[in-house]
Fold:
Amino acid sequence: MSQKNQLQKWLRKNLFDTWYNSILTVVCLLVLIWGTTSILTWVFAQAQWEVIGVNLQLFLVGRFPQQMYWRLWLVLFIILGLSCLTWGSLTRKLPKTINNWLPLGWTISFPIILWLIGGGLGLETADTNLWNGLLLTLVTAITSIVLSFPLGVLLALGRQSRMFIVRNFCVLYIEIIRGLPLIGILFIAQVMLPLVLPPDISLDRVLRGIAGLTLFSAAYLAENVRGGLQSIPRGQFEAGKAIGLNSALIMLLIILPQALRAVIPALVGQFIGLFKDTSLLSIVGLLELTGISRSILAQPEFLNRYAEVYLFVGLLYWIFCYSMSLASKRLEKQLNVGHK
Structure:
């Protein structure tokens, strides 16, 4: 049967099998055409995209000093280079030697990137008040993800511990944090915490925001990891005992790797949620991507340009979230997650 005949058969079976389905199909098609035409007309004929072009620098890096842009370009080069190598690793197109060094490369690059952005140790310091827009969103999101992951794993292991104090402390922390909204935790970190600290101690606003995101995300990550730990059969632990390993080595070398592999989708979902939750930092005074958008919309010449601005911001969020989702699917495929 030709492809044309197969298509006709599929259309007749799924879209035009009865008179009312045929009417519904035609109506939906007309609505789809009308909606698509209206959107395209607005995008190419009515929208005033100059608000994006004029303020592109503010969207991306905020008020970061122009004389330090070379540092951001170097950071971008490092991230793109490691990302390309990682993608090659996930698609199995790189030598095994390079694959083995990639985790170390990412680990070393993290403090280097923070040093390039923030300065110090020989570089001119860039005030965190000048970290705005997409730059601040990425810094807070990535730092919070990097810090919350090991903390979440430790909390999950602590909740499984036989030590009464450790187990109950972890349970208490997880349940309290999960019972609070993120905006409440950010409010405590930004507003309440400075009130109880000694006058001579001042924590950076960005650091407080990262701390709030990290503590919040770690509680949810702990429950995801705990679910993975409980999915591992007891026989795995007993097999480790049989070959002479102690409990710590069994957990580190046998149980935990399998548990983390099993919950990759849940972990990536949590990371994506954390990336989007950075938009709440705008409520507590940090001008990340959403916050800088509000300041741009306050400019007299760009009042009421909400659609253009928020569509552009939404597109940026989608690009990064979809990239994480795509990398997760590739990693799951490589590790054979969910397949027997």
Remarks:
- Residues 66-126 form one domain.
